[in-house]
Amino acid sequence: LNEQTGSLASPEVISDDLFDAMQFVTVIQGMGGLGKTTLAAMSATKESVRSHFVDGVAWIKLGQKNFRNDNFHGSSEISHLSFDDYKDHLYSICKQLNRIPPDFGEISFMPGDDDSIREERTLHAFQDAHQLMANLLCG
């Protein structure tokens, strides 16, 4: 949604953002029903967009979840995305990109673990899975 005009961006605008050397992230946000998913899908399926990503384009649907941008940087607050859901999304990306997924492991808790220990183990599991994916995709 263009904040100045109040209109939705077009797939062409999104595509231009994807190829701007100074634009590292393109975010599509807004209230429900505006067509954000449709716009993203239209952009991601354009051959002119896909051709710039020689290793492929993967699509995952996260749905209505709350996330924090600092999950992998020592945040004491873990997102509402469970580790099992996160692994499922990583497996989906691997499948779409024809990659063999690594073993992302499990989180083990002990009886008597307090919340801070559970949170720390969960954060480490997310970080480890993130690193495994980075190694797989970036070598």
TrEMBL record:
InterPro entries: NB-ARC, P-loop_NTPase. Transmembrane segments: none annotated. One of its GO terms (molecular function) is ADP binding. Residues 14-66 form the NB-ARC domain. This is NB-ARC domain-containing protein. It comes from Trieres chinensis (Marine centric diatom).
